[in-house]
Design a protein that fits this description.
The protein is mainly alpha-helical. The chain has a domain at about 25-90. The chain is about 55% helix and about 10% strand. It has 3 helices and 4 strands, in the order H-H-E-E-H-E-E. The protein has helices spanning about 25-45, 50-70, 75-90; strands at about 70, 75, 95, 100. It has a two-stranded antiparallel sheet with strand order 1-2. Strands 3-4 form a two-stranded antiparallel sheet. About 10% of the residues are buried.
Length: about 100
C-alpha cells in the first residue's frame, strides 16, 4: 500500500469557499448583506432605491470589515470580542502604592 504525505496547514483557517474565503469570512459577508437588505427592503419598502443602497452600505461594510480586517494578528471580530470582555472585567488601579477601587 502506498503512502502519500498530506500537507497540513495549521497556521490559519482553511479556505473552504472556492479556495479563497474561509467559512467565517463567508458567513460575515453574507450576514452583513442580508441584514442590510432586510432592513432596507423589508421594513422600508416605500423609499427610493438610492436611499435603500445607503441603508445597506453600513451593514455590508461592517460585515466586510469583520470578515477581512485583522488587528494585531487576529481577526477584527475576535479583537472586538476581547476588547468587550476587557471593558467589562473589574480592574484595580494603583497609584504610588495606594490601591484604588
Amino acid at each position: 500500500m502506498r503512502r502519500y504525505s498530506v500537507p497540513v496547514q495549521i497556521q490559519g483557517e482553511e479556505r473552504v469557499i472556492g479556495g479563497y474565503l474561509t467559512l467565517r469570512q463567508f458567513a460575515y459577508t453574507v450576514l452583513g448583506f442580508a441584514l442590510g437588505a432586510g432592513v432596507s427592503f423589508g421594513a422600508l419598502f416605500f423609499l427610493p432605491v438610492c436611499v435603500k443602497l445607503f441603508l445597506v452600505a453600513p451593514f455590508a461594510v461592517f460585515g466586510l470589515l469583520l470578515a477581512f480586517v485583522s488587528v494585531d494578528g487576529m481577526g477584527l471580530d475576535r479583537y472586538l470580542w476581547y476588547w468587550f470582555l476587557w471593558r467589562r472585567s473589574p480592574k484595580e488601579f494603583c497609584w504610588k502604592g495606594v490601591e484604588w477601587n
